[in-house]
Please model this.
Amino acid sequence: ESEEAAEVLSPVMEWGQALPDGDMENVKPHPFRRNSMVSAYPPRLGHRDPRLHFTYCANKDRPVAGLDQIWHSGYTLTRVALRKMFATQQTRKGILETGLPACSYPSDHLPIGAV
Model:
């Protein structure tokens, strides 16, 4: 992953415990990747700067890029469109300032969608 994403996700937590850095080398790709399953979202979306494209932001100014995905068969389906993450840039900035949930977004995850 990118250094920027690592900074946002540092330390990587699993079941409330910090994962030792060396353990990340042993992480294997999810089985979806071996069965032609692909994400509707570009794999590196938001990794350069997670504040631009994120779906989860429970703490203000600490968004997580690429957390939520829509998986589909690359053999039988083709993505033609994605739901915009934010209605406006002002909405994005507001979420970064307050975190989620918020009055307009009652979850700590933003809705995603694909056609």
About this structure: The mean pLDDT is 79.
